[in-house]
Write a structure and sequence with these properties.
Strand 1, helix 5 and strand 2 form a beta-alpha-beta unit. The radius of gyration is 18 Å and the shape is globular. The longest helix has 21 residues. It contains eleven helices and seven strands. Strands 3-2-1-4-5-7-6 form a seven-stranded mixed beta sheet, with helices on both faces. One of its GO terms (biological process) is methylation. InterPro entries: Erg6_SMT_methyltransf (IPR050447), GPPMT_Stmyces (IPR049645), Methyltransf_25 (IPR041698), SAM-dependent_MTases_sf (IPR029063). Keywords: Methyltransferase, Transferase.
């Protein structure tokens, strides 16, 4: 079964990375704050008073910022009714899927190529008594195995740098119903300077990913009948998260590369909301 889901050496290396980085404190310690575990970054200003208190206040503030990012993404999904189905493509440990169910009351399916993440997320759903409504699957987002036109909304949150965008949006266009909403939050390279940036290269190397240029998103969306209705540049909004994380006990050493890339303009942090036509 694994060989049909992980079809390339690159996909296998990505899965191995997330299967082995299961004890990374930057994810686990933040999730322990309220038992919602994310695999993405944060947005918004931080409270500077946390720097004067115990370390746990910094951890709590970092978690507040990453949950604020998830709330911002969910704000852009549009109206979702309790009888509709939505998809979290690259669902990590399941935090945003659980938040989506809590907000909309709908069914959520999450996909990940990390068997460890899928197991962790399903355990989280079971502990909350929502496993029949929030389900996580060991599947490739390029081949969701979901019925055509079955989803009202799909999102990706910092996962598109692991896939070919044309293949991804072709599959999403198939799975979304007419008028369905796709929301993406991602880091992307400045088309002029990003692919030459040492900081961007460092991020690629650290996460075993392949950051796309900004233009690639809009080209692939247009090619597959996904029309952007809103684009929000979150670059300035995410910098405080990285500044605070750099001063925390969960810093991993990649913080400087992110701050350099954002501040030199070689790397952008975007939210794109698009409708299926």
């Amino acid at each position: 079964m694994t060989s049909t889901i992980l079809r390339t050496d690159f996909e296998k290396s990505v899965a191995a990375y997330w299967n082995t980085h299961r004890n990374d404190p930057v994810n686990l310690r933040l999730g322990e704050v309220d038992d919602l575990y994310h695999h993405h970054y944060g947005v918004g200003p931080y409270d500077p008073s946390v720097l004067k208190g115990p370390e746990q206040r910094i951890i709590g503030e970092l978690h507040r910022l990453e949950s604020a990012q998830a709330d911002l993404l969910l704000d852009h999904l549009g109206p979702v009714g309790p009888d509709e189905l939505i998809l979290d493509a690259g669902s990590g440990r399941g935090g945003t899927s659980i938040m989506a169910h809590q907000r909309f009351g709908c069914e959520v399916d999450g996909l990940s190529i990390s068997e460890y993440q899928v197991g962790f997320a399903n355990d989280q759903a079971a502990r909350r008594g929502i496993a029949e409504r929030v389900r996580f699957h060991f599947r490739n987002m390029l081949d969701t195995r979901l019925p055509s036109g079955s989803r009202q909304a799909i999102w990706t949150n910092e996962t598109t740098m692991y896939v070919d965008l044309g293949d991804l949006y072709r599959e999403f266009a198939r799975v979304l119903g007419f008028g369905g909403r796709y929301v993406c939050i991602t880091g992307c390279a400045n088309d002029v300077t990003g692919l030459r940036s040492k900081a961007v290269s460092r991020i690629n190397e650290h996460y075993t990913c392949d950051i796309h240029p900004r233009s690639a998103y809009f080209r692939a969306l247009a090619d597959n009948g996904l029309v952007p209705i809103e684009v929000v540049d979150l670059t300035a909004a995410t910098i405080p998260y990285w500044q605070l994380r750099a001063r925390s006990s969960v810093a991993t050493g990649i913080e400087e590369a992110f701050l350099t890339a954002y501040q030199e303009g070689s790397f952008h942090y975007l939210l794109i909301a698009a409708d299926r036509i």
